[in-house]
């Protein structure tokens, strides 16, 4: 057999009202999420929001208290982990140290009773697939971290699973290897059409790799959307502030709009909440121009390459971040004053927190 490319083999995965508590800790509090065939969904959220628990329940390593996990419409609750047709890659390399790369890759095939010659040729194909054809006879301790993760990926793909589960697979690697492997995993996943659930706490990783990003908060789904939707149209202030950078600026209510620096701003829909409000704006939407009498004082600058992110402080102590082309930022040294301009429509209005 050969590795079947370009056949969409991915399953549909559904979490329905999934609940799981550990004693007094609620890890999942009614999670609803559907992953479409061949889709890569990243589970993103703060530490403890239930990402790993959801993945482990799908893998069959953890039970749930109520709700359902469906694969192609079938409840898999009673199905043991090894029958779930899922490949897994974990953060720590978890290769068998006493087995060569090829034997690690072929491990599942051996368990399944595949003959030696076929195992060897399948392992070789998979090693080629992950770019390590000449490393078949190396042992894990003779491989770099990135190479070990490639082997772990090949091993996870060996049984042609319909679901691929990735639990922070890149977190232990250094920056450059991580970026390479990001592209590699994405390429393979798309080529093979495997439905993939990717757990990460790294928003950049989630946004750059996923078809859709599911943001979890306290065991529930806050929003699941494409990276660009999530960024441009966050459903809640939590998502807005978790994904990308946001500044909060206190504003004044005026009928159905809000007033900021003396200028009215329209708001999508009706104003939420009674009481005081903040608007949320992204740094790339904030403009600054040098002005000795301007209300914003530049307090810090961080160089990000083509842009420099300036933080300015307003009279009431509010801090706002603004991304300027690095050349333009040179005209606004720390300690200088600036006029501040905002987009026609702030991203979101939220209850004041400060
Ligand atoms: P992190 O990003 O820190 O890995 P996470 O989003 O993956 O977090 P989970 O590991 O799913 O979160 O944990 C969710 C909650 O459930 C946490 O409060 C955690 O302490 C708790 N929890 C998870 N597994 C267990 C367990 N086996 N026993 C007790 N509590 C657990």
From TrEMBL:
GO MF annotation list: ABC-type quaternary ammonium compound transporting activity; ATP binding; ATP hydrolysis activity
TM stretches of this protein: none
GO cellular component: ATP-binding cassette (ABC) transporter complex
EC number: 7.6.2.9
SMART domains listed in its UniProt record: AAA
Enzymatic class: translocase
UniProt keyword Transport present: yes
Organism in which the protein naturally occurs: Kitasatospora gansuensis
Keyword line: ATP-binding, Nucleotide-binding, Transport
Domain ABC transporter: 13-243
Name of protein: ABC-type quaternary amine transporter
Record keyword Nucleotide-binding present: yes
InterPro entries: AAA+_ATPase, ABC_SmlMolc_Importer, ABC_transporter-like_ATP-bd, ABC_transporter-like_CS, Mo/tungstate-bd_C_term_dom, P-loop_NTPase, Transp-assoc_OB_typ2
Pfam family, one: ABC_tran
Domain of life, source organism: Bacteria
């Amino acid at each position: 057999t050969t590795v079947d490319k370009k056949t969409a083999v991915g399953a549909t995965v559904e979490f329905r009202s999934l609940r799981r508590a550990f004693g007094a800790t609620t890890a999942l509090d009614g999670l609803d999420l559907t992953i479409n065939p061949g889709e890569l969904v990243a589970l993103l959220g703060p530490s403890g929001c239930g990402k790993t628990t959801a993945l482990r329940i799908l893998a069959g390593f953890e039970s749930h208290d109520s709700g359902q996990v469906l694969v192609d419409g079938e409840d898999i609750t009673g199905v043991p982990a090894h029958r779930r047709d899922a490949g897994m890659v974990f953060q720590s390399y978890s290769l068998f140290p006493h087995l060569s790369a090829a034997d690690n890759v072929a491990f599942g095939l051996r368990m399944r009773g595949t003959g030696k010659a076929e195992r060897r040729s399948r392992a070789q194909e998979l090693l080629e697939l992950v770019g390590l054809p000449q490393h078949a006879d190396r042992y894990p301790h003779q491989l770099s971290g990135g190479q070990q993760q490639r082997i772990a990926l090949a091993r996870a793909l060996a049984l042609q699973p319909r679901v691929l589960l990735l639990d922070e697979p890149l977190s232990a690697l250094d920056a450059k290897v991580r970026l390479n492997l990001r592209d590699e995993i994405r390429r393979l996943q798309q080529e093979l059409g495997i439905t993939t659930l990717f757990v990460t706490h790294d928003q950049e990783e989630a946004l750059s790799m996923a078809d859709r990003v599911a943001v979890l908060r306290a065991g529930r789904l806050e929003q699941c959307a494409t990276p660009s939707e999530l960024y441009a149209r966050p459903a809640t202030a939590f998502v807005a502030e978790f994904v990308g950078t946001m500044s909060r600026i206190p504003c004044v209510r005026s009928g159905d709009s809000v007033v900021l620096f003396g200028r009215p701003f329209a708001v999508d829909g009706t104003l939420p909440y009674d009481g005081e409000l903040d608007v949320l704006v992204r740094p790339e939407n904030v403009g600054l121009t040098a002005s000795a009498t301007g209300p914003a004082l530049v307090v810090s600058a961080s160089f990000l390459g083509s842009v420099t992110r300036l933080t300015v402080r307003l009279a009431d102590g509010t801090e706002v971040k603004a991304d300027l082309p690095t050349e333009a930022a040179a005209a606004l040294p720390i300690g200088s004053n600036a006029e501040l301009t905002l987009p026609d429509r702030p991203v979101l209005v939220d209850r004041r927190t400060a």
